[in-house]
Every structure is written in structure tokens, then in C-alpha cells.
Specification:
The chain is mainly alpha-helical. The chain is built from six helices and four strands; from the N terminus they run ααααββααββ. Helices cover 68% and strands 9% of the residues.
Length: 149
């Protein structure tokens, strides 16, 4: 297996896919893909904290906090005190944030379907998804085929 080529293909696919979807989102919804990612995490995570966003998106706590700051400045979400932990806050979408997450989410799903949906049979996309999930899990454990990184 030519692992450097596999790496190149994965990274370039991600870059090309990100750029295409980001352009469509900016044009149709006025939101970059990175912001939509954060909105989607907040929307699906009850009691969402900045750490939940960081973990879900594989970014730093500082990066997640800055992303929430940007959404707050656009009046799409709010931080509220955590009811039982005074050291942290919860991040919640307001009505504008929920509306944008929903409408931009439709653009996101349409673009994914257009760019990936017809490229491979569904069974192959399912296998690819499972393989990528396995690789991500192995990387998050700091292993690769049972050896330490």
C-alpha cells in the first residue's frame, strides 16, 4: 500500500470537498462551513460546553471558544451559566442560530449528496465511512495497528 499517496488523496479530497461546500454555504447562507460545523454541534448536544465542541470537531478548546465568540458576535448563540458548575458555561443556539443551522444544514446536505452521493454505490460509501471511523478511532488512541505513535 502506498501510504503517502493515500494520505495525499485523503487530504486533497477533504480540502476540495471543504472548499466547494464552504463556497456554496457562503453564497447561499452567508455562513462559512467552519461556523456551520459549530452550530450543528451545539444543536445536537444537550448541555453543550465549549469542550464538547472541541471534542466533536477535533479542535483545541481555545479554537472552539473563539468559534463560539464569533457566533455570539453574530447573535447566533449565547453562553449561559452552567446550573451546577460555576466554572463553566453552556452554549445554546438562539432562534436565529437554530434557523441558520437548519437552512444552512439543508445546503450542506444537498452539496454533500451532489459531490459524494453519486460517486460511489451506497454500500461502498458505507464501507468508506466505517473505515474512516476506524482510522480516526485508532489515531485518537495514539495507535496505528496496535503500535504506539
Amino acid at each position: 500500500m502506498d501510504l503517502p499517496r493515500l494520505f495525499d488523496d485523503l487530504v486533497r479530497l477533504e480540502t476540495d470537498l471543504w472548499n466547494a461546500i464552504d463556497a456554496a454555504l457562503r453564497q447561499e447562507s452567508g455562513v462559512p462551513l467552519g461556523s456551520l460545523d459549530v452550530l450543528r454541534v451545539i444543536a445536537r448536544t444537550p448541555g453543550c460546553r465549549v469542550g464538547d465542541i472541541a471534542g466533536a470537531l477535533s479542535i483545541t478548546i481555545g479554537g472552539a471558544s473563539q468559534a463560539v465568540d464569533r457566533l455570539e458576535k453574530r447573535d447566533l448563540c449565547v453562553r449561559v451559566p452552567h446550573p451546577s458548575d460555576r466554572r463553566s458555561s453552556l452554549v445554546q443556539l438562539n432562534e436565529a442560530g437554530r434557523s441558520l443551522a437548519e437552512s444552512a444544514g439543508l445546503v450542506f446536505e444537498r452539496e454533500l449528496a451532489a459531490r459524494l452521493g453519486g460517486s460511489l454505490p451506497e454500500s461502498e460509501l458505507d464501507r468508506l465511512g466505517a473505515a474512516l471511523a476506524t482510522l480516526r478511532a485508532a489515531l485518537s488512541r495514539g495507535t496505528d495497528s496496535g503500535t504506539t505513535a
